[in-house]
Amino acid sequence: MTRSSAFAIDVPDRLLAQARARDAAACEQLYRWFERPVYGLAMRMLGCPDAAMDVLQDTFLKVFDKLPGFRGESPFWGWLRQVAVNECLMRLRGRGRDEPAEAEAFEPDLIEHEGLLPPQAADAAALTQALGRLPDKTRSVLWLYHAEGYTHEEIAALLGQSVSFSKSQLARGTRKLRTLLQLTEASHA
Fold first, then answer.
1. CATH architecture for residues 108-189
2. How far apart are CA 179 and CA 57, in angstroms?
C-alpha cells in the first residue's frame, strides 16, 4: 500500500544513480529535498528538537551508507521514511534505558507570536505544542496512524507491542489531545 506523505518527492533515476556512485552534489540534493520531511517526522514522533536533529543526521548517514544497495524496488521516499521511522523508534526504545526523556516539552516559537499568525498557523502551533505534551509512545502511535497512514498491525510490529496496545494508545492519545487543545483554545479566548 502506498501512503500519502510529505516524503513523496519524485527522485529522478539519474540523481539516484549519481548518489549511489557517491557523487557529493547528488547526495546533497537528496539531503536538501528530504531534510525537512525527515526532521518533521522525527519532531512529531520524539517531541524534542535535539533528538529530531540527531535522527535527521543518523537517518541520512544510514541512507547514504546503504544507498549503493538500494535497488529501487520501492520508491526512494518510502525507503527513506522507513529508515527515519526506525531511527525514531530506536531512540524511543532507548529512552527508558540509555537516555532520559526530555524534561522540557517542545514549545514552538509560533505559540509566543500567535496573535500575528493566520488562524491555520496558530492551530498548527497549538497542535504541535499539544503533541509535545503527550507521552512518547502515544505521540508516536498518533503520528504513525493519522499522519503516516500505518495500520494498527504495522504500528504494533514497529513498536514491538500488541495491536490492542496500538488501539488503546490511539484512543487515549486522541482523548488527551482533544483535552489539551480545548485547554489551549480556552486560554486564548
1. Orthogonal Bundle (1.10)
2. 34
Query: CA 62, CA 67: separation in Å to the nearest integer?
Result: 8
Q: Domains of the chain: which residue ranges?
A: 1-104, 108-189
pLDDT at 74 over 90: no
pLDDT digits (tens, 9 = 90+) for 104-133: 344 444 334 444 444 555 567 777 788 888
Query: Which is nearest to 180 in space by CA: 146, 137, 131, 145?
Result: 131
Question: CATH second-level architecture of 1-104?
Answer: Orthogonal Bundle (1.10)
Of 88 and 125, more confident: 88
Round to whole Å and give the CA distance between 113 and 117. 7
In this structure, which amino acid lies at residue 149?
G
- The CA-atom distances, in angstroms, between 168 and each of 12, 38, 55, 58, 179 are 41, 27, 27, 30, 17
Place of cell 532520559: 100
Burial class (CB in 10 A: 0-12, 13-18, 19+), 64: middle
Mean residue pLDDT of the chain comes to: 80
